[in-house]
Amino acid sequence: MAQASTALSVRSASLRYGTFQALSEISFEASQGQLVTLLGPSGCGKTTLLKAIAGFIPLDGGTVEIKGQDMQDVPPEKRDTAMCFQSYALFPHLTVADNIGFGLRQRRLGAQDIATRVAAVAEQVGLSSQLGKLPGQLSGGQQQRVALARAMAVRPGVMLFDEPLSNLDAKLRDHVRMEIRALQREHGFTAVYVTHDQAEALAMSDLVIVMRAGVIEQMGRPEDIYRFPANRFVADFIGTANIMPLRILDVDRTRGEYKVSSPLGEAVVRSDTPPVSDHIYACWRPEDAQITKPTADAQNRFEVRVTTRTFLGSQCDFSVHPLGDATNRYRIQTHGFAPVSEGETIGVVIAPDAIRFLAEAVR
Amino acid sequence: MKRQRLTPYLLLLPGLFPIVAFMSLVVGMAVSQSIGYFNFAGDDRFSLEFWEGMLSQNQFWRVFWYSARIAILSSLISVMLAYPVALWLRRPFPGSDLISAMIKAPLLVHGLVAAFLFVNFISFQGFLNVALVKLGLIDRPIRMQNDSYAIGVVILQVWKNMPLAFLVITGSVRAIGDDILDAARDLGAGSLARLRRVILPLTLRALQAALILIFIGAAGDWSFQVVAGPTNIQSMAQFMHRVQSDNAAHGWNEAAVVAVMLMALSLFGSLTLAGLMQLIVRRMGR
């Protein structure tokens, strides 16, 4: 039985289409007022999981509980959920007001109550002046707001978002993303948010669930997922990561330091978590490397050659490789302008605790 | 600038002109003849005598309302049968293509051929009577051919027009995205509420189009009526032909009155039916 504050609980959810395992033993919980993001590439099962929570797709195994109630035999129309669809799925024959009030009419609220609540929700999402229009007369951003308002109007126990921003342009996406998060915090509704955009997931979520091929690869707070990715897939999928194989040469257990050999040279890794093998993968983020003078002396200082340099305004992006080894390429980012040219040899320092062991042995 | 605005309309002319010209020609000719012009047996002069004569005949009104009844029944039954089938076949399943093809098969059979086959099937010594007798359900054959209630004509009209309704409605039903129906369901709409508040309103135009097409075709029917219709009453088309051939002097003028009334029945009857459908669907959606 889930705890009282648990709004949504998914346990061992499994689903198979023929030989294709769409979902495999998925388990997680969302507390009341939490925004949980299902993040992963196309085909990883995140939308399938969302539709299973909504009740559109029956699970082969496992349970979905909403506020402690098992949803096994509860049809979608009886579940305390409301979904914002990727396509918005607005009713084209109904006005904005009727779209927003659709769920309220199904719940048999009085005409006056419906009008009051529709007006209130429309006000919150900035659609008060559009209530008489048909969806086809609205812009993409406005349609997205109608979809959001329609779902919010029924005050569901769990709000489900299926990539709601994917049809918006970049600028509008940022704006609506902040609006959704603000509304979610203001009203304290529990939400499950599906996206393949890691920036969106990191910016909005209380809890991020990274999925691949129907399984959860890692689950945690956005900063933990970014700083301590569990494996190469998560490290690579969340932000930009430099992944390299390491061989453990020596261990100083009192200080939690590991002497390792890497393609960059010998290095020291400081980690609270011991490596799962003597020969494993590790990662570091491009912004973890600091460019130093060639003569500087520091721990974990490596000499690399710059192959490309891209000036991005607020930062510079470099592709580098170890001296004498052009096959291993790494990315480095610096804040602001860095007076380094392509072909130049530079020194980079990576702090021992910036290199993180991944729970994945090199085979 | 002015020329640019005119160009699209000029481009439409080659297609629009023959349609408008031929329609105007036919309608104009019929209306003109009904009021005394293009008179083959007398002076060309304006006269309402053919209208007065025809509209005062009880037989004409019997024929008029008979054709209206056949058209209303045929279009309503065809659409009512086609609609649930189109909904059922909305999402493909093994065998759905075959079922869909079989439903559309009558479109490939000419109505006259179908009428003769039907008459053979229900005739006094036809397959149906023989089968019923052999099964012991009846002692001797029943007379079903050319029944006075025109049930045979309605059956033929539905057989022929149901695939047309199915074709028109299927496109519209399939155009409703799964997300739209899922959204309605997610917001608490059960099967009936989804049908009333989402599916019917979104397919209203197709329903109306199917009703109009079938109504017009059935109102002007000649072949089903001649082969399988009742012998005690005629359809508008049949009556028009008889009026023209029986009356040598003013046959064309009187037939033109019937023709204009047939066109009026087609126009107003189908529009009324479509309007009623809209009212019903809107009321159901509330």
Question: What would you say this structure looks like, in words?
Answer:
The complex is a heterodimer of chains A (363) and B (286). Helices cover 23% and strands 37% of the residues of chain A. Chain A is of the alpha+beta class and 363 residues long. Chain B has a domain at 57-111 and 146-285: MetI-like fold, CATH 1.10.3720.10. In chain B, 75% of the residues lie in helices and 0% in strands. Chain B has helices spanning 2-34, 49-55, 58-88, 96-104, 111-122, 127-134, 151-174, 178-186, 191-219, 223-228, 236-246, 251-285. Chain B is globular. The mean pLDDT of chain B is 92. The A-B interface holds A 54, 56, 75-79, 81-83, 85-87, 89-93, 102-103, 106-107, 150, 154 and B 177, 179-180, 182-190, 193, 197-198, 201-202.
Count of distinct strands of chain B: 0
**In percent terms, what proportion of residues of chain A is strand?**
35-45%
Largest sheet strand order of chain A: 6-7-8-3-9-10
- Please state the second-level CATH architecture of one domain in chain B: Orthogonal Bundle
Low-confidence stretches of chain A: none
Give a short overview.
The complex is a heterodimer of chains A (363) and B (286). Chain A contains eight helices and 20 strands.
